Automatic annotation (TrEMBL), chain A:
It catalyses: ATP + H2O + polyamine-[polyamine-binding protein]Side 1 = ADP + phosphate + polyamineSide 2 + [polyamine-binding protein]Side 1. Its EC number is 7.6.2.11. PROSITE patterns: ABC_TRANSPORTER_1 (PS00211), ABC_TRANSPORTER_2 (PS50893). The complex is composed of two ATP-binding proteins (PotA), two transmembrane proteins (PotB and PotC) and a solute-binding protein (PotD). It comes from Protaetiibacter mangrovi. Keywords: ATP-binding, Cell membrane, Membrane, Nucleotide-binding, Translocase, Transport. The keyword Cell membrane applies. PANTHER family: SPERMIDINE/PUTRESCINE IMPORT ATP-BINDING PROTEIN POTA, SPERMIDINE_PUTRESCINE IMPORT ATP-BINDING PROTEIN POTA. Part of the ABC transporter complex PotABCD involved in spermidine/putrescine import. Responsible for energy coupling to the transport system. This is Spermidine/putrescine import ATP-binding protein PotA. GO terms for molecular function: ATP binding.
UniProtKB/TrEMBL annotation, chain B:
Residues 84-294 form the ABC transmembrane type-1 domain. It is found in: Cell membrane. The chain crosses the membrane at residues 23-49, 88-110, 122-141, 172-192, 220-240, 272-296. Keywords: Cell membrane, Membrane, Transmembrane, Transmembrane helix, Transport. This is ABC transporter permease. Belongs to the binding-protein-dependent transport system permease family. CysTW subfamily. Pfam families: BPD_transp_1 (PF00528). Coiled coil: none annotated. It is a multi-pass membrane protein. InterPro entries: MetI-like, MetI-like_sf. It comes from Protaetiibacter mangrovi.
Length: 398, 304
C-alpha cells in the first residue's frame, strides 16, 4: 500500500472483541460491522469503552479475544503503522518539534508519497490554516491545533478515519463549520468514519448510524432518528435526550396496542413500539411529545391523559419552555412546550393535565428494578448518587 | 534549550514586574554574583596573567614575574599539540560510548519502567550508587581488575584475544574505558530526565501515521529527548577533556596515554606555572570552540 491512496473506504468488522485490563473489563464480546463509506458514531458516557474500541481498531491496544477486520482483511495482529487507519486524537498529539506543515506531511512522507508537500498544503487549505504552515503547534490556539490534527489524518486518505472526540475544544461556530467540513470530506472521498463522542448532538447531526455504548456493550444501534424516537433501553432513553418513564403491569393487550397500569390509570402503548408485552414493563414518552392542558381534556381514542398534576417548575429556554409536572403517584414529568404565545401557559402551582398520542409512546426492554430509579432527569449526578448508594448497601450487607 | 534538563527558562516577568521591586532581584542575585566573581572570574584573570609570566630575576625555580611572554603559548602548542589531539579524541570516544550505553539505559528507566515507580527509583539509585564510593577508589579497582595477572587479562589471554606478552593497563583502551565508566551517570541522568517526561502519545501518533519503530525513534523519540542528550554529552565531554585521573600512570594510563589534564598537573608540580597556565587556557579554548558550535547547532531548528 506504500505510495498509494485508498480509493474508497473499507468495511470495519469487529468479531467477538473483548478487552480486559487488570482489574476490569473494558469491552465485552463486541460485535460490530461498519459498512464502507458510512459515518458511524459510537456514543456513550466516559468510561463506557468507546475510546478503548477506537484504540483497538487503530492497533494501539491488543484485544484480549476476538478479531478485527478492515476491508475483509484480518488486522488483529497488525501493528498500528501497518493499518490503513488514521486517528484524530483527543489530545491532538501534534509533534511539538515539527512545524504544522511537518506534522501534516509526516504520514505521507512515511509512505513515500512524492507530492507530500503539495498534498499537505492542500489539506491545510481545507482547514483554512495554510497561512500558519510554518509555525509550531504550540503557537496555535486549541481550535487551530484540532484542525491541524484533522488535516494530518485526512491528508492520508485512510480507508478508515478514527475520530476521538475531535470537536471538543471548538467553539460553536467553528464546530458547525468543522462538522460540515467533515461531512463533505467524508462524502467526497467516501472514507469510512468512526467517530467516538459523548456529545449526543454531535453524534446525531453527523453520523448516519449511531451506536449507544454503555459498560462495554452496545445498547442500541441505528439511524439517529430511529434511536431517538424508539429507544429500546432505559439507558438509551435517558442518555439520548430526555424521557418520561413509567413502570407498571400490562393489564390488557389489544390488536395493536397494550394497556399498562400506571398509578391506576390505563396508559396505552403501540404493540410494535414495545419490547416486552407482559408482566411489569417500563414505558416512556419524550417530553416534547407531551401537551399541557389547563383543563381536563376530553378523553379521545388514541390519546393518553395523565392528571391532574401540579406544575412545580417552569423554565424558559428560548424556543421552548420546560415544565416540571408532579402527578400524584408518578415520577416528576418533564414537558417541553413550544413557545407559541408570549409567556408560559401555566405558572408554578397551577393544576394541569398532560396528554400525548398513543403512537408516541415506547416500551423498553429492561427488567424493571425495585427502586424508583426512573426519575425524569437521570443525569450523571443522580447516577453517581445511585451508584454510591448501591455500593454502600453492598457494604452494609457484607 | 541545550541545558533544558537543568533549568527551565520560565516566563519572562521582567516587563511585568514593577520597577521599584528591582532591588529585591539585586539582593537575591548578589550572593551568586559575588561567588562567580570570587571563584570564577578572579582565578581566570589570575590564570591568564600567570600564563604570560616570565622567569624571575634570580632564576630560581618556581619564581616568575608578570610580563607578556607569549612564547609560553608557542611552547605549549609545540610541546603538547599531540596531547591536545589525543585528549580530544579520548574524550570524544568516551562521550560517544557513554551515550550509546546511557541512552538505552535511560530509556529503560524513564519509559519502560514508567508503570513501576518503585523499580524506576531503584534502578535510578543503582545508576547513582557508584557516587557513594570515591571515584579514585573505583578507578583503582578497575586498575586491579585490568592488572597483568588479573582476571580480565588472564581470560583474554586464555581465549587468545590477547597474546601472552600483551597487557591492558596503561593503554588507550583502559583510559577510555575509565573515562566512559566514570561519566556514565552524568550522561544517563539528563537523558533520563528528558525521556521520563516524553509524552508517549506522540509515539502512538507516529505509529498511527505509518512510522515503524525505527522511524518513531529517529523522528519522534530522539528529537524530543535531544535536550537531555545535549546536556549529557556536554556534562561528559567537558570534564572528560580536563580529566587527569584516568589517564594518569598511577591509575589506568601510562606515559603513552597522557592527556592535557596530566600535563597541567605535571607542569604545575614541577613549578612551571606559566606553562601550566598556558596549557590550561589552551585546553579551555580547545573545548569551548567545539562546545559552542555544538550548542549553537542543537539550539537551532535544523538539528530537530
Amino acid at each position: 500500500m506504500a505510495g498509494s491512496f485508498d480509493e474508497s473506504g473499507a468495511d470495519l468488522e469487529l468479531v467477538g472483541v473483548t478487552k480486559r485490563f487488570p482489574g476490569f473489563t473494558a469491552i465485552e464480546n463486541l460485535n460490530l460491522t461498519i459498512p464502507a463509506g458510512s459515518f458511524f458514531a459510537l456514543l456513550g458516557p466516559s468510561g463506557c469503552g468507546k475510546t478503548t474500541t477506537l484504540r483497538l481498531v487503530a492497533g494501539l491496544e491488543e484485544p484480549t479475544a476476538g478479531r478485527i477486520l478492515i476491508g475483509g482483511k484480518d488486522v488483529t495482529t497488525s501493528k498500528p503503522h501497518q493499518r490503513p487507519v488514521n486517528t484524530v486524537f483527543q489530545s491532538y498529539a501534534l509533534f511539538p518539534h515539527m512545524t504544522v506543515l511537518g506534522n501534516v506531511e509526516f504520514g505521507l512522507k512515511r509512505r513515500g508519497i512524492s507530492s507530500a508537500r503539495e498534498l499537505a498544503h492542500e489539506a491545510l487549505r481545507l482547514v483554512e490554516l495554510d497561512h500558519v504552515a510554518g509555525r509550531r503547534p504550540a503557537q496555535l490556539s486549541g481550535g487551530q491545533q484540532q484542525r491541524v490534527a484533522l488535516a494530518r489524518a485526512v491528508v492520508n486518505r485512510p480507508a478508515l478515519l478514527l475520530l476521538d472526540e475531535p470537536l471538543g475544544a471548538l467553539d460553536l461556530k467553528l464546530r458547525r463549520q468543522m462538522q460540515l467540513e467533515l461531512k463533505s470530506i467524508q462524502s467526497e472521498v467516501g472514507l469510512t468514519f468512526l467517530h467516538v463522542t459523548h456529545d449526543q448532538e454531535e453524534a446525531m447531526t453527523m453520523a448516519d448510524t449511531v451506536a449507544v455504548m454503555n459498560k462495554g456493550r452496545i445498547e442500541q444501534m441505528g439511524a439517529p432518528e430511529e434511536l431517538y424516537e424508539l429507544p429500546r433501553t432505559t439507558f438509551v432513553a435517558n442518555f439520548l435526550g430526555q424521557s418520561n418513564l413509567f413502570t407498571g403491569d400490562v393489564v390488557s393487550t389489544e390488536k395493536d396496542s397494550m394497556t399498562v397500569d400506571i398509578a391506576g390509570l390505563g396508559i396505552k402503548v403501540p404493540r410494535e413500539r414495545a419490547q416486552r408485552h407482559a408482566g411489569e414493563v417500563t414505558i416512556g414518552v419524550r417530553p416534547e411529545k407531551l401537551t399541557l392542558h389547563t383543563a381536563k381534556p376530553e378523553s379521545t381514542a388514541g390519546v393518553n391523559i395523565l392528571g391532574p398534576g401540579t406544575v412545580i417548575d417552569v423554565s424558559f429556554t428560548g424556543v421552548s419552555t420546560q415544565y416540571l409536572v408532579q402527578v400524584p403517584g408518578l415520577p416528576v414529568l418533564t414537558v417541553f412546550a413550544q413557545n407559541m404565545v408570549f409567556g408560559p401557559v401555566a405558572e408554578p402551582g397551577a393544576e394541569v393535565y398532560v396528554s400525548w398520542r398513543v403512537e408516541h409512546g415506547f416500551g423498553l426492554a429492561d427488567e424493571p428494578e425495585p427502586e424508583p430509579k426512573f426519575a425524569g432527569d437521570d443525569d450523571t449526578r443522580t447516577i453517581a448518587v445511585q451508584r454510591r448508594q448501591r455500593l454502600e448497601d453492598e457494604l452494609d450487607e457484607a | 534549550m541545550a541545558f533544558g534538563a537543568f533549568a527551565n527558562s520560565g516566563p519572562d516577568l521582567s516587563a511585568a514586574a514593577p520597577r521599584r521591586r528591582s532591588y529585591v532581584a539585586i539582593i537575591l542575585l548578589a550572593p551568586g554574583v559575588v561567588y562567580l566573581l570570587a571563584t570564577f572570574v578572579a582565578p581566570l584573570v589570575s590564570l591568564v596573567l600567570t600564563s604570560f609570566k616570565e622567569p624571575g630575576g634570580d632564576f630560581e625555580v618556581g619564581e616568575y614575574v608578570y610580563a607578556f611572554r607569549w612564547e609560553n603559548y608557542a611552547e605549549a602548542i609545540g610541546r603538547f599539540g599531540e596531547i591536545f589531539l589525543r585528549t580530544f579524541g579520548y574524550s570524544l570516544l568516551a562521550t560517544i560510548l557513554a551515550l550509546l550505553i546511557s541512552y538505552p539505559l535511560a530509556y529503560f528507566i524513564g519509559v519502560t519502567l514508567r508503570r513501576f515507580p518503585l523499580w524506576q527509583s531503584l534502578v535510578l539509585i543503582l545508576v547513582i550508587a557508584p557516587f557513594f564510593i570515591s571515584f579514585l577508589l573505583r578507578t583503582l579497582a578497575w586498575k586491579a581488575i585490568f592488572a597483568d595477572e588479573g582476571p580480565v587479562v588472564s581470560f583474554l589471554q586464555a581465549i587468545g584475544i590477547l597474546g601472552p606478552e600483551d597487557y591492558l593497563n596503561g593503554t588507550a583502551f583502559t583510559v577510555i574505558f575509565g573515562l566512559t565508566y566514570n561519566y556514565i551517570p552524568f550522561m544517563t541522568l539528563p537523558i533520563y530526565t528528558s525521556l521520563e517526561r516524553l509524552d508517549l502519545r506522540y509515539v502512538e501518533a507516529g505509529g498511527d501515521l505509518y512510522a515503524g519503530p525505527a522511524q518513531r525513534f529517529w523522528r519522534i523519540i530522539l528529537p524530543l529527548s535531544l535536550p537531555g542528550v545535549v546536556s549529557g554529552t556536554l556534562l561528559t565531554f567537558i570534564p572528560a577533556s580536563g580529566d587527569y585521573v584516568n589517564a594518569s600512570k598511577d591509575f589506568l594510563g601510562s606515559t603513552n596515554t597522557v592527556m592535557a589534564g596530566n600535563v597541567i598537573n605535571d607542569m604545575f608540580f614541577q613549578s612551571f606555572y606559566p606553562l601550566s597556565a598556558a596549557v590550561s587556557i589552551l585546553l579551555m579554548i580547545a573545548i569551548l570552540i567545539p562546545v559552542v558550535a555544538y550548542v549553537a547547532r542543537s539550539g537551532s531548528e535544523d538539528l530537530l
